[in-house]
Amino acid sequence: MTLSPVALRRTACAMVALLTLCLLIMVWQAVQQKESTLAIRSLNQGASVPDGFSILHHLDAHGIHFKSITPQDDVLLIKFDSRSQSAAAKEVLDRSLPRGYIIAQQDDESQAGIWLNRLRDSSHRLG
């Protein structure tokens, strides 16, 4: 059974439309899934970072959910599902931690997000 040229063209157009839809869904998910991280450092070199348990207590008392708290070198990293959770946690920790700590917000990007940024930044080079 052979397909007529019209049916073949329709099948090809349907496949292209399906692939385009799948690509758009993947790009949308990559853009929407942004984790955010707070990094807590001590102002004084050699001073210890706050205890993860005390951070957990402060965030939990204010109803702020987080993914993880991880000590790394001289920094305490707290991962959140969204930037809004991270911003709320930063406000709470700015008020509750003693002076002498720097609390910096860092946005994490998925691998797809990194590629999208590379494509956006290099689009002027194409052509």
UniProtKB/TrEMBL annotation:
Annotated membrane topology: Single-pass membrane protein
Annotated GO MF terms: protein kinase binding
Location of the protein in the cell: Cell inner membrane
Gene3D superfamilies given in the database record: 3.30.70.260
Pfam families per record: SecD-TM1
Keyword Transmembrane helix: yes
One annotated Gene Ontology cellular component of this protein: plasma membrane
Main location: membrane
Residue ranges of every copy of the SecD export protein N-terminal TM domain listed in the record: 15-105
Annotated keywords: Cell inner membrane, Cell membrane, Membrane, Transmembrane, Transmembrane helix
Annotated NCBIfam families: PRK10629.1 (NF007915)
Assembly and oligomerization: Interacts with EnvZ.
Family under the similarity heading: Belongs to the MzrA family.
Function text: Modulates the activity of the EnvZ/OmpR two-component regulatory system, probably by directly modulating EnvZ enzymatic activity and increasing stability of phosphorylated OmpR.
Protein name as catalogued: Modulator protein MzrA
Species name: Pseudenterobacter timonensis
